[in-house]
Amino acid sequence: MLNNKFTIHIIRFFFLVLAQVLVFNNLNFLGFINPMVYILFFYWYPVKENKSILFIVSFLFGLTIDFFSDTMAIHTASCLTIAYLRSGIMRFCFGVNYDFQNFKMTSTTTLQQVTFIALLILFHHLIFFSLEIFSFSNLLLILKKVLIVGSATLLLCLLIKSLFSTQNK
Amino acid sequence: MQQIINFLIKNKNGLLYVFLLLIALGFTVQANSYHQSKFLNSSSWLTGNIYQTSTNISTYFSLQKENNTLLEENKRLRNLLFNKNIVAPDSIKTDSSSTYNIVTANVIKNSYSLSKNYITINAGKNQNIKEDMGVITSNGILGIVDHTSNNFSLVQSILNTKSTINAKLKNEAYFGSLTWDTKDFNTAQLTDIPRLVKLKIGDTVVTGASSSIFPKDIPIGVIKDYSLKKSENVYHINISLFQDMANIKNVYIIKNKDIVEIKELEKKIK
Predict the structure, then answer these.
(1) B211 vs A: CB within 8 A
(2) Measured between alpha carbons, how far is residue B2 from residues B19, B28, B247 in Å?
(3) Could you say which of A9, A70, B92, B118 has the lowest number of CB atoms within 10 Å?
(4) Is A31 exposed, middle or buried (0-12, 13-18, 19+ CB in 10 A)?
(5) A71, B37: Cβ pair inside 8 Å?
(6) pTM for the full model?
(7) Extents of the domains making up chain A
(8) Considering the domain boundaries, does residue B9 fall inside one?
(9) ipTM above 0.85?
(10) Largest alpha-carbon pair distance within chain B?
(11) What's the CATH number where B217 sits?
């Protein structure tokens, strides 16, 4: 059973990396909109899991994407940060339910799930574009990119989430 | 001692986060100040081969268009050949007296939506590609080789805030440098052209002769618009590039045989 769970995570890891670098990095909609759907990894990652392992996994995950897209460790830094903020965001979105031992993602409402993904995307994109543009004189450009690319990411994440959601979990 | 260990155990998650974040930020800062990292780039064996496979599939859908581009270029070169009475060589021979040598390659990964864009091509050390060689397409300039692995190379595109390329106006002797302000992927900027030069919209911009990387007079683009503030002595010129940066398939890498000698000379002066 444990083995099976591991396999699913590993497959998901590689599936998301390949989908991101081969498909979504080449979208370039309107010249600059490349949705970062790999954030779904942090949505699908088990809720109650050793935090240190999550950090190491997210570090490797971000590094793999950086490896492909020649963006020096920017993905890594933003992935790592949302991994760090993840439990806080979850507590904010799901309230006291999150502290229960038998908390499951499927028992939450759709609105809560959407808020969770949206917040993950917001923090991720803020860090990603600040590091990518790397100058505070372009603050407006950073905010514009966060807003536009973020909405595109949210839309695609929700579509992919509904495509792969299983009823019996 | 006990307290230190207790503190470490209590805050191990936070410390791990800070540690990993520092590694990541270290990479980022290093990449901003100098070359792309030696090991963390898409010209490595694994990433290169994955991109190669993906390109092998996707190029089938644009073969017709690529053929037309190549025919178009051949037509232009034939025109040049016939009208200038240059005799085509009977057999292909490598002339040791020529300064520039050309290698061809395919683009396997292109990016133009970031502020520091890199292109990966499928030619590397095995094809004698080295760092700091110029890369052009049939329409114009593309970038400079930044890093090579055995079979792939990473090209720093002109759409990269770190790039500065020596450029000049075709009919004037004034040099400037070509940079990019990240706003539009088909527009680059030419700086350092003094105000005494008379500009016209539509003037052609080509590479200058004072670069050892590119031969002179490789087309770059045409002047789209320009502005001159009262207090400044240099123009701010927008150039619309000849090469559509979103659609690059085949590239030429230029080897300058004199580059070793030029570099040695430059070292001596320093």
Answers:
(1) no
(2) 22, 36, 62
(3) B92
(4) middle
(5) no
(6) 0.82
(7) 2-164
(8) no
(9) no
(10) 88
(11) 2.40.10.350
